[in-house]
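Chain particulars:
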Amino acid sequence: MSEKLYNVKQCLRNNGVALTIIIYYRKILNKVYNYLVLGRLDTNIDSRANLLGLKYIKLGENFSAGRGLWLEAVTRYNGKNTNPKIIIGNDVSFSEYNHIGAVSYIEIGNNVLFGSRCYITDHNHGIYKGDSQSCVSTPPIKRDLTTDGSIVIEDNVWIGDNVVILPNVKIGYGSIVGANSVVTEDIPPSSIAVGIPVKVIKVWNNTTTKWEWCDSKRNRDK
Protein backbone atom coordinates (compact mmCIF):
# COMPACT_ATOMS: atom_id res chain seq x y z
CA MET A 1 0.00 0.00 0.00
CA SER A 2 1.40 3.38 -0.96
CA GLU A 3 2.06 5.92 1.78
CA LYS A 4 -0.47 8.39 0.34
CA LEU A 5 -3.24 5.79 0.23
CA TYR A 6 -2.39 4.73 3.77
CA ASN A 7 -2.62 8.36 4.92
CA VAL A 8 -6.04 8.75 3.30
CA LYS A 9 -7.33 5.63 5.02
CA GLN A 10 -5.98 6.82 8.36
CA CYS A 11 -7.64 10.19 7.84
CA LEU A 12 -10.96 8.49 7.05
CA ARG A 13 -10.67 6.30 10.12
CA ASN A 14 -9.80 9.20 12.43
CA ASN A 15 -11.97 11.98 11.01
CA GLY A 16 -14.82 10.51 8.99
CA VAL A 17 -15.75 11.07 5.34
CA ALA A 18 -16.93 14.69 5.49
CA LEU A 19 -13.90 16.05 7.36
CA THR A 20 -11.51 13.99 5.21
CA ILE A 21 -12.96 15.59 2.08
CA ILE A 22 -12.46 19.05 3.57
CA ILE A 23 -8.87 18.25 4.61
CA TYR A 24 -7.86 16.92 1.22
CA TYR A 25 -9.70 19.71 -0.61
CA ARG A 26 -7.49 22.17 1.27
CA LYS A 27 -4.36 20.18 0.44
CA ILE A 28 -5.23 20.09 -3.26
CA LEU A 29 -6.07 23.80 -3.24
CA ASN A 30 -2.72 24.54 -1.62
CA LYS A 31 -0.88 22.55 -4.28
CA VAL A 32 -2.66 24.47 -7.05
CA TYR A 33 -1.91 27.77 -5.30
CA ASN A 34 1.79 26.95 -4.95
CA TYR A 35 2.04 26.04 -8.61
CA LEU A 36 0.14 29.06 -9.93
CA VAL A 37 1.64 31.69 -7.61
CA LEU A 38 5.19 30.35 -7.16
CA GLY A 39 5.53 27.97 -10.09
CA ARG A 40 6.64 25.34 -7.58
CA LEU A 41 5.57 21.81 -6.74
CA ASP A 42 7.99 21.27 -3.85
CA THR A 43 6.68 24.09 -1.64
CA ASN A 44 3.71 23.69 0.68
CA ILE A 45 2.35 27.13 1.55
CA ASP A 46 -1.22 27.54 2.69
CA SER A 47 -3.29 29.30 0.02
CA ARG A 48 -4.42 31.94 2.54
CA ALA A 49 -0.87 33.30 2.82
CA ASN A 50 -0.05 36.97 2.29
CA LEU A 51 3.02 37.03 0.02
CA LEU A 52 4.27 40.47 -0.99
CA GLY A 53 7.35 41.45 -2.96
CA LEU A 54 8.03 37.95 -4.30
CA LYS A 55 10.55 39.38 -6.75
CA TYR A 56 12.81 40.06 -3.77
CA ILE A 57 12.22 36.77 -1.96
CA LYS A 58 14.19 33.58 -2.61
CA LEU A 59 12.70 30.35 -1.31
CA GLY A 60 14.77 27.19 -1.02
CA GLU A 61 13.54 23.67 -1.67
CA ASN A 62 10.73 22.07 0.35
CA PHE A 63 9.58 25.26 2.06
CA SER A 64 6.37 24.83 4.05
CA ALA A 65 4.14 27.18 6.03
CA GLY A 66 0.76 26.82 7.71
CA ARG A 67 -2.12 29.25 7.49
CA GLY A 68 -1.67 32.92 8.27
CA LEU A 69 1.82 33.35 6.79
CA TRP A 70 2.68 37.00 6.12
CA LEU A 71 5.92 37.14 4.15
CA GLU A 72 6.75 40.62 2.87
CA ALA A 73 9.68 42.30 1.20
CA VAL A 74 8.77 45.98 1.61
CA THR A 75 9.82 47.85 -1.52
CA ARG A 76 8.25 51.24 -0.82
CA TYR A 77 6.98 53.03 2.28
CA ASN A 78 5.92 56.63 2.88
CA GLY A 79 6.93 57.48 -0.67
CA LYS A 80 10.48 56.15 -0.24
CA ASN A 81 11.91 53.16 -2.10
CA THR A 82 13.78 50.40 -0.30
CA ASN A 83 15.94 47.52 -1.48
CA PRO A 84 14.81 44.43 0.45
CA LYS A 85 16.02 40.86 0.21
CA ILE A 86 14.68 37.76 1.95
CA ILE A 87 16.62 34.52 1.48
CA ILE A 88 15.21 31.28 2.88
CA GLY A 89 17.18 28.02 2.66
CA ASN A 90 16.13 24.44 2.06
CA ASP A 91 13.75 22.42 4.24
CA VAL A 92 12.51 25.40 6.27
CA SER A 93 9.19 24.94 8.04
CA PHE A 94 6.85 27.53 9.59
CA SER A 95 3.83 26.65 11.65
CA GLU A 96 0.83 29.03 11.71
CA TYR A 97 0.45 32.82 11.71
CA ASN A 98 4.07 33.86 11.25
CA HIS A 99 5.05 37.34 10.06
CA ILE A 100 8.39 38.08 8.35
CA GLY A 101 9.01 41.60 7.07
CA ALA A 102 12.16 43.03 5.47
CA VAL A 103 13.17 46.38 4.06
CA SER A 104 16.85 45.44 4.00
CA TYR A 105 18.05 41.87 4.58
CA ILE A 106 16.75 38.72 6.24
CA GLU A 107 18.46 35.37 5.72
CA ILE A 108 17.21 32.05 7.08
CA GLY A 109 19.43 28.98 6.67
CA ASN A 110 18.65 25.34 5.97
CA ASN A 111 16.59 23.03 8.19
CA VAL A 112 15.19 25.82 10.33
CA LEU A 113 11.97 25.12 12.25
CA PHE A 114 9.58 27.83 13.44
CA GLY A 115 6.67 27.46 15.82
CA SER A 116 3.50 29.56 15.54
CA ARG A 117 3.00 33.31 15.78
CA CYS A 118 6.62 34.36 15.39
CA TYR A 119 7.52 37.88 14.25
CA ILE A 120 10.78 38.59 12.42
CA THR A 121 11.63 42.12 11.33
CA ASP A 122 14.77 43.92 10.19
CA HIS A 123 13.27 47.39 10.69
CA ASN A 124 11.39 49.73 13.03
CA HIS A 125 8.63 52.27 12.48
CA GLY A 126 10.66 55.34 13.35
CA ILE A 127 14.14 56.20 14.60
CA TYR A 128 14.76 56.16 18.35
CA LYS A 129 18.48 56.79 18.72
CA GLY A 130 21.06 59.20 17.34
CA ASP A 131 20.60 62.86 16.42
CA SER A 132 17.46 62.69 14.24
CA GLN A 133 14.85 60.78 16.20
CA SER A 134 11.16 60.34 15.45
CA CYS A 135 8.78 62.77 17.15
CA VAL A 136 5.92 61.54 19.34
CA SER A 137 3.53 63.86 17.49
CA THR A 138 4.07 61.89 14.26
CA PRO A 139 1.67 58.93 14.03
CA PRO A 140 3.70 55.68 14.08
CA ILE A 141 2.35 54.62 10.69
CA LYS A 142 3.76 57.82 9.14
CA ARG A 143 7.22 57.50 10.65
CA ASP A 144 9.99 56.46 8.25
CA LEU A 145 11.20 52.88 8.43
CA THR A 146 14.77 52.19 9.49
CA THR A 147 16.70 50.64 6.60
CA ASP A 148 20.06 49.66 8.09
CA GLY A 149 19.01 46.45 9.85
CA SER A 150 19.58 42.80 9.07
CA ILE A 151 18.81 39.37 10.50
CA VAL A 152 20.69 36.12 9.91
CA ILE A 153 19.44 32.78 11.21
CA GLU A 154 21.91 29.98 10.55
CA ASP A 155 21.23 26.30 9.79
CA ASN A 156 19.50 23.85 12.14
CA VAL A 157 17.92 26.52 14.35
CA TRP A 158 14.63 25.91 16.18
CA ILE A 159 12.47 28.93 17.03
CA GLY A 160 9.66 28.34 19.53
CA ASP A 161 6.13 29.78 19.53
CA ASN A 162 5.54 33.54 19.89
CA VAL A 163 9.19 34.49 19.47
CA VAL A 164 10.01 38.05 18.35
CA ILE A 165 13.28 38.58 16.49
CA LEU A 166 14.29 42.25 16.21
CA PRO A 167 16.76 43.97 13.84
CA ASN A 168 20.52 43.47 13.75
CA VAL A 169 20.84 40.02 15.28
CA LYS A 170 22.41 36.73 14.28
CA ILE A 171 21.23 33.38 15.62
CA GLY A 172 24.04 30.85 15.39
CA TYR A 173 24.06 27.32 14.01
CA GLY A 174 22.03 24.73 15.89
CA SER A 175 20.65 27.10 18.49
CA ILE A 176 17.21 26.99 20.10
CA VAL A 177 15.11 30.01 21.07
CA GLY A 178 12.49 29.26 23.71
CA ALA A 179 8.82 30.18 23.35
CA ASN A 180 7.74 33.78 24.08
CA SER A 181 11.32 35.11 23.89
CA VAL A 182 12.40 38.45 22.42
CA VAL A 183 15.72 38.35 20.56
CA THR A 184 17.53 41.70 20.74
CA GLU A 185 21.15 40.54 20.49
CA ASP A 186 23.21 37.80 18.86
CA ILE A 187 22.82 34.21 20.03
CA PRO A 188 26.00 32.11 19.73
CA PRO A 189 25.98 28.79 17.88
CA SER A 190 24.86 25.67 19.75
CA SER A 191 23.01 27.58 22.47
CA ILE A 192 19.60 27.51 24.12
CA ALA A 193 18.30 31.00 24.82
CA VAL A 194 15.10 32.17 26.51
CA GLY A 195 13.51 35.26 28.00
CA ILE A 196 12.72 38.93 27.46
CA PRO A 197 15.25 40.01 26.42
CA VAL A 198 16.73 36.69 25.42
CA LYS A 199 19.51 35.17 27.53
CA VAL A 200 21.62 32.07 26.85
CA ILE A 201 20.99 29.42 29.52
CA LYS A 202 22.55 26.29 28.00
CA VAL A 203 25.28 25.40 25.51
CA TRP A 204 26.02 22.20 23.63
CA ASN A 205 29.16 20.33 24.70
CA ASN A 206 30.60 18.30 21.82
CA THR A 207 32.75 16.26 24.21
CA THR A 208 29.96 15.10 26.51
CA THR A 209 27.29 15.35 23.76
CA LYS A 210 24.97 17.07 26.23
CA TRP A 211 23.35 20.46 26.73
CA GLU A 212 24.96 22.02 29.78
CA TRP A 213 23.89 24.92 31.98
CA CYS A 214 26.03 28.01 31.58
CA ASP A 215 25.12 29.66 34.92
CA SER A 216 24.45 28.76 38.56
CA LYS A 217 21.62 26.43 37.52
CA ARG A 218 24.02 23.92 35.97
CA ASN A 219 23.48 21.44 38.82
CA ARG A 220 19.92 20.77 37.67
CA ASP A 221 21.11 18.22 35.11
CA LYS A 222 23.20 16.26 37.59
